[in-house]
Amino acid sequence: MATNELDWANLSFGYVPTDYNVRSTFRDGKWSPIEETDSTTIDLHIAATALHYGQEIFEGLKAFRGKDGKIRIFRLEENARRIAESARGLLMAPVTEELFKEMVIRAVKLNERFVPPYGSGASLYIRPVEIGLSAQVGVAPAKEYAFIVFVTPVGPYFKEGFKPTNICIMREYDRVAPKGTGRWKVGGNYAASLQAGMKAHELGYSAVLYLDPKEKKYLDECGPANFFAIKDGKYITPASDSILPSITNKSLMTLARDMGMEVEQRHILLEELADVTEAAACGTAAVASPVAEIDDLDTGHKYVILPDRKPGPVVTALYDRLRAIQLGEYPDEHGWNTVL
Ligand code: PLP
Ligand code: COI
Fold this sequence. Notes:
Blueprint: E1 21-27, E2 30-31, E3 35-37, H1 49-52, E4 56-58, E5 61-65, E6 71-74, H2 76-89, H3 97-110, E7 123-132, E8 145-154, E9 165-169, H4 187-191, H5 194-202, E10 207-211, E11 219-222, E12 226-231, E13 234-238, H6 247-258, E14 263-266, E15 278-283, E16 287-296, E17 302-304, H7 313-326, E18 337-339
Parallel strand pairs: 9-10, 9-16, 13-14
Antiparallel strand pairs: 1-2, 1-3, 1-8, 4-7, 5-6, 5-7, 6-18, 7-8, 10-11, 12-13, 12-15, 15-16, 16-17
Helix pairs in contact: 2-3, 6-7
Bound molecules: pyridoxal-5'-phosphate and 2-OXO-4-methylpentanoic acid (COI).
């Protein structure tokens, strides 16, 4: 595809074909040399564990074209660590941090022409994925695995971009079990979220705010993103075993502290939403998407966070600082960027 056909500023969060992806196979206890390919398909055994028993994990991170023209990959090491955690969670072979970094950098460099220009608001989304390859009919982990990294240029995840949206609470669905796979980035978690997500979209909400699956008393996370709010001037975000430890959330907590705010990561009762002044969904894809209103569809209660539907000052400041670091406009004081 010719990149001059791409309307960078109006990209959605979708799949645009790029030039190459990179792959490695785990066999006989070791990862193979990296293969570069322009093929977008894989040859998979019909009894592969990825197909039958859900041995599939992935990551999501982004590369940005900076003000200085350089490409920056955000928090590469953190994503490397998290996919290895997910692998251990599903008894898959963990990808080494070294291999992960090398493959992500290689995938970005090979597709450099797809890194959106500075100022477009778009970025290059990097999707590492690992699957179990071995044929297995009894429920057991595979012996062989494939690790693949592909990239695709993307715009905002919520089509509204930084415009506040409404989210909803529905108790009839859980994405994960209380001591289940929620803390890992496992494909099955997303399969389990499809019905609730679809219903929310049909009702005009951008995402579902899940409650903790055990007691349904505490806030958990927000569709494919973590949740945070501002209460009494503090940054509060749920502590929970059933949510993905978001690298964006971790970064925003650091930035909030840098800006002199107190940060609390703790159980947050649903009712506390009545006292929050701002709220947002945060993640690689969502960045920090302000929330205007949270509707509890079971009780009919509406928590109106932003009556004028304008992003609040704290979420705006955090979003701006995060973006500025990613784009090389603000000093990378915490060493989060890998500059190519
Ligand atoms: N929670 C879920 C369920 C997600 O899919 C994501 C996206 O990766 C996040 C949270 C945010 O995590 P991160 O900030 O590391 O992208
Ligand atoms: C991300 O933010 O990277 C995600 O994985 C969200 C998603 C589109 C599943």
